[in-house]
């Protein structure tokens, strides 16, 4: 059974940093692209970042480029999102999502999400 | 960026009746390379994470009931629930998987009348 479990969310002040993790199980993690997608009442579902199977292709939404860094450790079956210079508009539930292939843009499984709140 | 526009924002349908959701993309998501439409439909039940229902515009994921049908091509797409069940109460999103940045529609809330 595929499982994705996000962690690391919480309340953080503007300008500070946070690191999200996503623990994967139930599939061969290193064979698949992984994504971060966030959801807020104001913006709905918003794609954040993609990392392909071997980290050779990494993409970001313009809204987070230069502030967020996606990475993965295939030996640990884990995905990460380092978020720096956080802004109130980054407040959202952050989901990790599995791609259907090694570089796929089809999000065929989503974790439960972790809430990030940026506020003073 | 490809803008995805859904209609209606919400609809209420009687149990057993048909529900139809529309999605329009600001540019074609039909690839000339493989003649596939790069369009997905995603369901989000209350309090749950999103779940992929359909990709390539009409290919149902394993385990998705056949009352869910995706259709359309180019810039205009439809998700049809042929006979609404209580468990289908959810918000439905279209998403283009044609290229980055991936973009989503604003969602259509489906309720029981």
Compile the SSE list and pairings:
The complex is a heterodimer of chains A (120) and B (113).
Chain A (H helix, E strand, L loop, with lengths): L2 E5 L2 E3 L5 E8 L8 E7 L3 E8 L6 E3 L7 E6 L4 E6 L8 E8 L7 E4 L3 E5 L2
Parallel strand pairs in A: 2-11
Antiparallel strand pairs in A: 1-3, 3-8, 4-5, 4-9, 5-6, 7-8, 9-10, 9-11
Chain B lengths: L3 E4 L2 E4 L5 E7 L13 E6 L6 E5 L3 E2 L7 E6 L2 E6 L8 E7 L6 E2 L3 E5 L1
Parallel strand pairs in B: 2-11
Antiparallel strand pairs in B: 1-3, 3-8, 4-5, 4-9, 5-6, 7-8, 9-10, 9-11
Please, could you describe this protein's structure?
The complex is a heterodimer of chains A (120) and B (113). Helix content of chain A is 0%, strand content 52%. With 120 residues, chain A is mainly beta. Chain B is an all-beta fold and 113 residues long. In chain B, 0% of the residues lie in helices and 48% in strands. Chain B contains no helices and eleven strands. Chain B has strands at residues 4-7, 10-13, 19-25, 39-44, 51-55, 59-60, 68-73, 76-81, 90-96, 103-104, 108-112. In chain B, a hairpin with a 3-residue loop joins strand 5 (51-55) and strand 6. Chain B starts with a strand and ends with a strand. The mean pLDDT of chain B is 97. At the A-B interface, strand 5 and strand 10 of A face strand 5 and strand 10 of B.
> Main beta sheet of chain B, described?
7 strands, mixed
pLDDT averaged over residues of chain B = 97
Number of DSSP-assigned strands of chain A: 11
Q: Which descriptor suits the 3D outline of chain B?
A: globular
Q: Distance between termini of chain A?
A: 40 Å
Helix content of chain A: under 10%
What string, H for helix and E for strand, traces the elements of chain A in order? EEEEEEEEEEE
Q: Count the beta strands of chain B.
A: 11
Radius of gyration of chain B: 13 Å
Order of helices and strands of chain B: EEEEEEEEEEE
Uncertain ranges of chain B: none
Structural class determined from secondary elements of chain B: mainly beta
How many individual helices of chain A?
0
Q: Which range does the strand content of chain A fall in?
A: over 45%
Main β sheet profile of chain A: 7 strands, mixed
Tally of helical runs of chain B:
0
Biggest interface pair, residues each? Answer: A-B, 23 and 21 residues
């Amino acid at each position: 059974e595929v499982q994705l479990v996000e962690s690391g969310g919480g309340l953080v002040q503007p300008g500070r940093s946070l690191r999200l993790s996503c623990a994967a199980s139930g599939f061969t993690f290193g064979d698949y692209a992984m994504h971060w997608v966030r959801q807020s009442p104001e913006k709905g579902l918003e794609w954040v970042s993609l990392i392909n199977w071997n980290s050779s292709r990494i993409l970001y939404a313009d809204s987070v480029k230069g502030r967020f860094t996606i990475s993965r450790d295939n030996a640990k079956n884990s995905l990460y999102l380092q978020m720096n210079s956080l802004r109130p508009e980054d407040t959202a539930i952050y989901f990790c999502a599995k791609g259907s292939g090694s570089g796929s843009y089809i999000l065929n499984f989503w974790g439960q999400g972790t809430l990030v709140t940026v506020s003073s | 960026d490809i803008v995805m526009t859904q209609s209606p924002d919400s609809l209420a349908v009687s149990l057993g009746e048909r529900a139809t959701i529309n999605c329009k993309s600001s540019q074609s998501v039909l690839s000339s390379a493989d003649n596939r439409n790069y369009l997905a439909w995603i369901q989000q039940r209350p309090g749950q994470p999103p779940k992929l229902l359909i990709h390539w515009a009409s290919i149902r994921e394993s385990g998705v009931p056949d009352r869910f049908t995706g259709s359309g091509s180019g810039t205009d797409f439809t998700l049809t629930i042929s006979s609404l069940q209580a468990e289908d109460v959810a918000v439905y999103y279209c998403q283009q998987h044609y290229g980055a940045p991936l973009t989503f529609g604003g969602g259509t809330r489906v309720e029981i009348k």
